[in-house]
Design brief:
Layout lengths: L3 H14 L1 H5 L15 H4 L14 H4 L10 E9 L9 E11 L4 E18 L6 E19 L4 E15 L10 E14 L5 E2 L3 E2 L4 E10 L17 E12 L3 E12 L3 E8 L2 E8 L2 H7 L11 E11 L4 E12 L7 E11 L2 E9 L15 E9 L14
């Protein structure tokens, strides 16, 4: 069967959208797990590990949910790679609920990446034999709790399913379908009091978080010997509230992230034939060995954002956002500016974000340019004020 188009599409998504996976130490399967899934953080240059104050924190830093009370549900939709006019989109559904008897919140999310519909043809004929759809999906469940008044802990467990083709190619056995699991461990420090000489107490104004995500075994489709690692990722984030009064709030966020994968290529000589064999470290090895595979600082991604809120918490709030994302030219070369806006009225919220690369040389035709994300959320039962930055739960 000829599925060249499908293979080209999947390769494009992996190679173009997620260059960071290759640039930071090796090739990865299911790179959709690295896509920034929500509009709010998307408008902040794709930074959120230090802020993490809504249900999308399941992705950015689940420990941030430990400081929240009440319930929240949200959904995000985005058409992906709009420059190519393809049937690519992803959806992100989240839910969190504070349970007093558990002294924390239970969380859940569903991530769905649709690659579109493809026509199946025969190996020796272009005649259509039918159609099939390709997609990647992940179901995540988690728990977040406060270890103390200032420290939060978040844990996630994830089921990953990738369906590239429902039938084998040519003489291959099996299908282009794979399933794996992973887990996340995250922490957040959000001090209620922190004295700095000559500055004073900046407690309740900043937070620092770290999220080690997608820890898990390799995933394979046909041959276990050709299994690829999933994109284990370390993200460290910082958030600081520059201003906060009755009607105005201004927040600064900054994230650093690194994909923890190490993949090496070995040359094997047998019967005068030379072949290259790729080998990747297991996830529990790569979280240590990947640090020496590439230059330390150049192999990381950097992102930051500013978020301004106007209004009264619990009534009507309006937000404006902007951000910047940077990746070293030798290790992916993604650079873009983001813009976003949002509103909160009573228990309802709406956010959108926009990516532009046109301000950079050659960026006008970049696949990520003009990407839009839209999010709708409903939150109820929490402490008033939790929707305007650095919330503190009970």
């Amino acid at each position: 069967m000829k599925i060249i188009l499908r293979l080209m599409l999947i390769g494009m998504v992996i190679g173009v959208v997620q260059k960071a996976v290759y640039a930071q130490g090796g090739e990865s399967a299911v790179p959709f797990l690295l896509l920034a899934p929500d509009s709010r953080a998307g408008g902040l240059g794709e930074s959120g590990a230090g802020l993490a104050d809504n249900s999308a924190a399941i992705f950015w830093n689940p420990a941030g949910i430990a400081f929240l009370t009440g319930n929240e549900v949200s959904i995000t939709h985005s058409n992906w790679l709009p420059q190519f006019n393809l049937d690519l989109f992803y959806d992100y559904l989240t839910y969190r609920q504070y349970i007093e008897s558990l002294n924390g919140s239970v969380t859940a999310s569903v991530t769905y990446m649709n690659f579109g519909e493809f026509v199946r043809t025969g190996a020796d004929s272009p005649d259509p034999l039918g159609t099939f759809r390709s997609f990647d999906a992940a179901l995540t469940v988690g728990y977040a709790t406060k270890l103390s008044n200032d420290w939060g802990l978040g844990l996630n467990f994830r089921l990953i399913h990738s369906r590239l083709s429902d039938q084998p190619t040519a003489q291959e056995q099996g299908k282009g379908v794979a399933t794996s699991v992973s887990f996340d461990v995250a922490t957040m420090w959000r001090p209620s009091s922190f004295e700095i000489p000559l500055i004073g107490d900046i407690g309740n104004k900043f937070s620092v978080g770290a999220n080690l995500s997608n820890l898990g075994p390799k995933i394979y489709y046909i041959d276990r010997a050709q299994a690829d690692p999933i994109p284990t990722n370390l993200r460290i984030g910082f958030a600081y509230q520059l201003m906060n009064d009755e009607y105005n709030s201004l927040m600064y966020t900054f994230d650093i992230s690194k994909v923890l994968i190490k993949k090496t290529t070995q040359t094997v000589i047998s019967n005068n034939d030379t072949t290259s064999v790729s080998k990747s470290d297991e996830w529990y090895q790569a979280i240590f060995t990947s640090w020496g595979a590439k230059p330390f600082f150049r192999s990381m991604d950097y992102s930051m954002g500013l978020e301004y809120w106007y209004g009264t918490p619990g009534d009507f709030l309006f937000a404006l956002r902007t951000g910047f994302f940077y990746e070293d030219p030798s290790y992916g070369n993604r650079k873009f500016v983001t813009f976003g806006a949002g509103i909160r009225y009573d228990i309802y919220g709406f956010d959108f974000s926009y990516i532009t690369t046109s301000i950079f040389k050659g960026g006008a035709n970049h696949p990520l340019s003009d990407t839009l994300r839209f999010s709708v959320s409903i939150g109820w039962g929490g402490i008033v004020g939790q929707t305007r930055g650095l919330p503190r739960g009970i």
